[in-house]
Amino acid sequence: MSKPLIVIAGRHGQLGQELVQASVAYDDAFIFLFAGRYELDLGKPETITAFFEKHQPAYFINCAAYTAVDKAEAEQEAAYTINAESVGMIAQQCHKYGCIFVTISTDYVFDGKCTRPYQINDATDPVNYYGFTKWVGEKLALENNNKTIVIRTSWLYSTRGNNFVKTILRLMKEKTELTVVSDQIGCPTYSADLADAILKIITSLEKGNNHYGIYQYSNSGAISWFDFAVAIGDIAKLSCQVIPVPTSAYPTAAKRPAYSVMDTSQIAKTYGIDIKDWKESLEDCIAKISHAK
Ligand SMILES: NC(=O)c1ccc[n+]([C@@H]2O[C@H](COP(=O)([O-])OP(=O)(O)OC[C@H]3O[C@@H](n4cnc5c(N)ncnc54)[C@H](OP(=O)(O)O)[C@@H]3O)[C@@H](O)[C@H]2O)c1
Asked: Is 45 domain-assigned?
């Protein structure tokens, strides 16, 4: 019997690259087709139909997104096309070909006013344009294909790409002190853990599990960016001093939710996904970054 084809869009992003690595262990079960923006440009939704006609995948994992949160306030059209319109179009095509759609969303769909971890069905009310486009993307993905899984994640980092961990490591080597926001609380997610979770979910779907809808995945814990920076410095044994500052001292074009910790119990229960402690995963990532040098 031929192996099911999994298309993964956004191959050069943090999560896309982790999926490239993680997919090796699944080569016996699936055929993988990794697409960058040159193979599939989500800025051109009109090209999506021809892509599906050509490949007709069994699974489509969307890791591509307009992720520049501050720039999205000015480049609204581009952010909307990539994060909302194209996601809806992919879902339509998935429906046409009986394809299961997995797409990644964000904690930024919430307003940040909660004081306990956000449940999947809590009211959404994004505070910035990026969050709004991802929220519309969620809706269009679910409305246009009944076999859709939306995975909300938060504070993604990895050994590659641009992310908080790599930026803090670099700055701590250059400076003696750093100021970091201490009044935004969330939970970091190591992209390698999320990539493993996605492939476990697909394996479970392939065995007949059919629980679609919205799920939330991050590592476990609740910390501020300040706590995160201190931990990065401690693990990497860097002596730079970290000074906590309020969000008001660090103005940005896009507002951020003050609190965006998400409840991840549903994905753990439904798909048997292990939720790793944020610090344990951070240690793994920093060890990999150090070994790569
Ligand atoms: N990063 C976070 O902290 C965070 C938090 C919550 C949720 N998320 C979500 O998690 C997912 C993965 O994020 P990530 O951190 O891996 O993102 P990332 O590293 O910024 O990668 C995004 C990818 O999307 C691709 N892309 C952008 N515009 C495109 C277009 N027009 N057509 C096709 N591809 C395009 C980029 O391609 P190029 O390489 O060619 O630019 C890049 O490979 C996204 O859905 C994001 O919204 C991220």
From this structure: yes
Q: Which residues make Cβ contacts (< 8 Å) with residue 78, sequence separation at least 6?
A: 43, 66
Number of domains in the chain: 1
Tens digits of residue pLDDT in 174-209? 999 999 999 999 999 999 999 999 999 999 999 999
Does the residue 251 lie in any domain?
A: no
pTM to 2 decimal places: 0.97
Mutate to test the pocket of ligand 1, among 7, 21, 37 (most ligand atoms within 8 A of CB): 37
- 153 CB within 6 A, ligand 1: yes
How far CA 173 is from CA of 159, 176, 244, 288, 292, in Å, comes to 17, 8, 18, 18, 17
* Per-residue pLDDT reduced to its tens digit, 153-178: 999 999 998 899 999 999 999 999 99
Ligand 1 pocket check: which of 86, 103, 156 to mutate, most ligand atoms within 8 Å of Cβ? 156
Q: How far is the CA of 140 from the centre of ligand 1 (A)?
A: 18
Answer yes or no: 38 catalytic. Answer: no
